[in-house]
Amino acid sequence: xxxxxxxxKKGNQSALMASIMNTIIAIIKxxxxxxxxxxxxxxxxxHSIGDAANQFFVxxxxxxxxxxxxxxxxxxxxxxxxxxxxxxxxVVGILAYETVKEGFHHIMEPPEPNQWFWLNIGVLxxxxxxxxxxxxxxxxEITAELADEDxxxxxxxxxxxxxxxxxxxxxKLVFLEDLVATGGAVIAIxxxxxxxxxxxxxxxxxxxxxxxxxxxxxxxxxxxxxAAGVLGVADEDMERKIGQIVFQxxxxxxxxxxMVVKEGEELHVELRVELDPDMSIGxxxxxLAGMEKKILMxxxxxxxxxxxxxxxxxxxxxxxxxxxxxxxQ
Length: 329
Known about the structure:
Blueprint: H1 2-8, H2 13-36, H3 39-64, H4 80-108, H5 117-144, H6 155-162, H7 169-197, H8 203-231, H9 236-246, E1 252-263, E2 266-275, H10 281-296, E3 301-310
Parallel strand pairs: 2-3
Antiparallel strand pairs: 1-2
Helix pairs in contact: 2-3, 2-5, 3-4, 3-7, 3-8, 4-8, 5-6, 5-7, 7-8
């Protein structure tokens, strides 16, 4: 049990904060929905319940993925976060379906606007502010990983969108879910205003469908990303970067093979290089040890396996696209 609580301290903090925030938001929306019966509020309630449950499991998964390898699982638990995320998106998928279905019912049989206009607007406005605060935290986590840049102000927003594909799995999920949640709250507010002050009473039903479809997008995006993570996807950007690092060492003549595999939030590197055949074993060992140390300094890299061979005078590594024939395509 002590080990379990120790692992929880290493869990993704954005996911934990998002889960707590969305639980509070879900309670507030639930009370508002019981009072008003508003379908746009129902859609947002389903969204918040899904986000809260999803992000809680993501936090647990990201924490357990830090568990050290055991005799039974010598490869470690890094991919556990991907498995948890695959399970979590099922929850969002079910709630997305219910949201779309309820929207269709509302379009077919739109009720008259009720007297709870300001309650609905106030609750959704508060939800949008709280969800936006979680979204900003996720943006800061994404940009914080860009260690070579000092990012502040509005630049955080643009840089987070540009680098979302490189974010940790848990942070990416929080970013996408709260981006949709914040946008969904705004859509719900607009639909209530339109349904209240115009004859277009079906607006709330269409808003519910839009929110449900946005949730389906999150389901699809997260499922594809984490299915690839479970299988062991190559990080081509890191492969190119490590290729450049390797050739900074003048004694390394070529790269026969370079693979960088993502396992959860960790990167595992396998490298085979060619050295001068006249080099002594002691010198070669020092070069390889120094190279391993440099690669381990790269963010996210937790394991490096380097093998060497003598230079065969045939250039294998293509410096144009910096992909070796032996690496993942």
